[in-house]
Amino acid sequence: MPDKKAYIDEKLCDGSPFCAVRRACPAGAVTQKNGVLGGTAVVDPAKCIGCGKCAAVCPHKAVRLN
To answer: pLDDT tens, position by position, for the chain (66 residues)?
Structure first.
């Protein structure tokens, strides 16, 4: 069974510069399109370890594991 990876639903992501998802990722797999100034969160699947911490902290439920 393949490992699960996180992905961001861009329609639900608010692009906050204080993104809890980016801060919670222990693997550093989450960045934002405009860097630390905010922007839609993006997951690098090569770095994602599938732990689900990002999904647990997203206040907008924009993160899913597949």
So the answer is: 468 999 999 999 999 999 999 999 999 999 998 876 789 999 999 999 999 999 999 999 999 999
Torsion of CA 49, 30, 63, 1, to 10 degrees: -20
Instruction: Record the tokens describing residue 13, joined without a space.
Output: 């992501």
37-40: long-range contacts at Cβ-Cβ below 8 A with a sequence spacing of 24 or more? 39/15, 40/8, 40/10, 40/13, 40/15
Query: Which two tokens mark 60?
Result: 């907008």
Residue 43: enclosing H or E segment and its boundaries?
strand 41-43
Residue with tokens 């994602």: 48
What would the two tokens of residue 43 be?
A: 């997951």
